[in-house]
Amino acid sequence: QVQLVESGGGLVQPGESLRISCTASRFDLEGHSIGWFRQAPGKDREAVACLSSRDGGTIYVDSVKGRFEISDDYLKNTVYLQMRSLKHEDTAVYSCSADDVKFNQCTLSADQYDYWGQGTRVTVPS
Fold first, then answer.
1. What is the structure's pLDDT at 54?
2. Burial class of residue 5 in the structure, from the number of CB atoms within 10 Å of its CB (0-12 exposed, 13-18 middle, 19+ buried)
3. Which residues of the chain have pLDDT under 70?
4. What gap in Å lies between CA 12 and CA 68, rounded to an integer?
5. What is the DSSP secondary structure assignment for residue 26, as one 8-state letter?
6. Residues sharing a CB contact under 8 Å with residue 102, sequence separation 6 or more, in sequence order
7. CB within 8 A of 108, min separation 6: which ones?
8. What separation in angstroms does the CA of 101 have from each of 53, 98, 114?
9. CB atoms closer than 10 angstroms to residue 95
10. DSSP assignment string, 72-113
């Protein structure tokens, strides 16, 4: 059974940085597009960023552009989300997701992704 496990969440102060990870088991992330999503308390899930397996391209939601960066380390079968200049409004549970189809261009649509992790909580106090 495919498993995606996020880690690295925690409590950080506004303006600080945090890197969260997504490691896959029984699934080779290389060649598959990856999406990061988040859900804040009382709000709907929203897309944050994605990484295309086809060309390594990335897409970011406007609210995190210039602050967040998605990257991969396929030797570790892991994808990262580096978050900088964190704000209170970044507080959420962050989940990674993977597209089962190889070499698709990534999108910020949750419908593209077949496998999901349970999430890691990031808290930025106001």
1. 82
2. middle
3. none
4. 15
5. S
6. 31, 32, 53
7. 35, 47, 49, 50, 59, 61
8. 10, 9, 9
9. 23
10. EETTTTEEEEEE-S--GGG-EEEEEEEEEEETPPP-S-GGG-
Six token digits for residue 54? 């086809």
What are the distances in angstroms from CA 122 to CA 22, 69, 106? 14, 16, 24
CB atoms within 10 A of CB 40: 14
Helix or strand or coil: residue 8? coil
Q: How far apart are the C-alpha atoms of 59 and 49, rounded to whole Å?
A: 5
How are beta strands 120-123 and 10-11 bridged, if at all?
parallel
Q: In terms of residues, how long is the chain?
A: 126
